[in-house]
Known about the structure:
Elements: E1 4-5, H1 16-22, H2 24-27, H3 38-58, E2 65-68, H4 71-85, E3 93-97, H5 102-113, E4 117-121, H6 131-137, E5 142-146, H7 160-169, E6 173-177, H8 189-192, E7 196-200, E8 211-215, H9 230-233, H10 241-256, H11 258-279, E9 283-286, E10 296-301, H12 306-315, E11 318-319, E12 321-322, E13 324-327, E14 330-333, H13 335-339, H14 344-347, E15 350-354, H15 361-381
Parallel strand pairs: 1-11, 3-4, 3-5, 5-6, 6-7
Antiparallel strand pairs: 2-8, 7-8, 9-10, 10-15, 12-15, 13-14
Helix pairs in contact: 1-10, 3-10, 4-5, 11-15, 12-15
This protein binds 4'-deoxy-4'-aminopyridoxal-5'-phosphate.
4'-deoxy-4'-aminopyridoxal-5'-phosphate binds next to helix 4.
Amino acid sequence: MNRIYLDNAATTFVSNEVLNEMLPYFTNIYGNPSSPHSFGREANAALDTAREKIATAIGAKPNEIYFTSSATESNNWALLGVAEYYQNSDKKHIITSQIEHPSILETCKYLESKGYKITYLPVDSDGLVSIAELLHNLNNDTLMVSVMAANNEIGTIQNLKAIAQTVKERGVIFHTDATQAIGAVNINVKEMGIDMLTLSGHKINGPKGIGALYIANNININPILHGGHQERELRAGTVNVPGAVGLGKACEIACRDIIINSQKLRRMRDYFVDKVMENIPYVKLNGHKFQRLPNSISLSFGMVEAEALMMMLDLEGIAVSVGSSCSTGSVEPSNVLKAIKLSPELAAGTIRITIPKSITKEDIDYVVEKLEVIVKKLRSMSPLTKSSIGEFDNV
Length: 395
Ligand code: PMP
């Protein structure tokens, strides 16, 4: 069966270039980077090189890059580490957005349980945070602001520089989760005024289980992992050396190829969306029309149950993901789809397609053909009617 993977926001394969760079660090160069002997020094030199590559990719200094196990850990650390450092100050207010990844939202909820006041900024129907709303909520108690660079469900890219500068003007710490943005959005932390930034290996054709947190040298933060003296005493635990090498290489390639990849992905993405819109009625495209990740397509199908659509596509070898999470038998719309005020009916029919660089027009034609057949079938069984699902552009 022809298998087509369209879930690249969930994870990506490790590219050959990255794999080849990593391989020696599993076998020949296996020293502990903290050891002072030559084996350790070799491993440590590899970490230095990886740190340099990551720093170059985002315009930071190498000694501002800290390796972690994942973007989840980086996000937890950014929020918890700063909160703990300033625990005895009066600053007990944190601002984030309603469309953040759970690793931000759940950490904020935890901090709420510890007495912090959290503001969850709303977004408009395209998924953009409003600068006016941000300004309105910044106050003397605000400790930090965390707003993601690009959204993992609808692909919307925030006005990051404007957000960072608004926050900086008020002397508040600014963190961004750039997990989905690296390789798609040009980011220079110094020019933009970003104090902390999260990234992850496996979203950019690097390995799983490795992430990084950029922390500007003037930012005060406590560790959340205690133990050894690794990562300038701020993140205990032996660094995953092959992972770090892979993350460094993946960042280097993502930035090297950003223009060519984005152009190709955008062309294919638009071809995909146009083809769906031409062939299938009652479909809505979510996210900002232009300010959107080049590989990202969030589609809401009226009168369709997304879980069923995803499973029937899977039977045809096509992997997509569902834009709402299913809990206790009822499908609860995701925080992102709720925040852009998608109706519950449409949210329940939303799938996320994130295309790879290697996709061809033939792949897209094949997928849209299958989509058309499956959507027709599901609609013939749906209790929903055209009049109950609102207005569509492509009817
Ligand atoms: N932030 C965003 C925006 C993400 O998309 C993801 C992964 N879905 C994460 C954080 C968590 O990444 P990791 O798997 O590296 O923990």
